[in-house]
Give the backbone structure.
Amino acid sequence: MNEKFFTLYVEGIADMVFFKQYLQHCFSIVVPEEQIVNLEGWTNIKGIAALRRMRSTTDNGGVNLVILDADSDFEARRKDVLDWGQQNGVDFKLFLLPNNHDAGTLEDLLEHIINPNNRPIFDCWEHYEQELVQLDIPGRTPPPLTTPAKKTKIYGYLEALLGESKRQKELIKEANRNYENPQHWNLDLEYLEPLKQFLVGKIMQTE
């Protein structure tokens, strides 16, 4: 099979790193930096820069792939983005993380593909969250305490597994993560099948 020309639009650095490695892992595709657009937030898919880039990709015979977080409402996000595309006459294929079906984010996807040996780390984290919301801090208004963001959860997962040296700490950062490290992640899990099928149908063609 040959690779089609495509432009990939994602929300941030974490997504860029993950998808570069995932495409390399699954399809042996090395994606040039210029083929991945970091939107720096999902709403920027509606910006003039993204619109012009999509039209350019289409005019050059390529396909636009938009991969965003579904966040709290899958159907609302899907409708919002597709309606915008229709109103502006641009052609793109849309996949919403984590699985093109449920509400969630990249971090939800990542939690589903951890090495199962490391599941106790998340079990501890979930216990911590349960305890946190029950705490009553005198003078705090309003209760309960704020639960850490999902990004913090993934950061904590890697921090627990990696060493304490400065070099090891650098590997925790979104830009430096290695999703092909089997001690931390499994890119071949069935959970990723919807994403894999979306990609293979859009970026690969039979010779």
User: Anything to note?
Assistant: The longest strand covers residues 63-69. The chain has two domains: 2-108+187-205, 114-176. The chain has a mean pLDDT of 94. The CA atoms of residues 125 and 153 lie 8 Å apart.
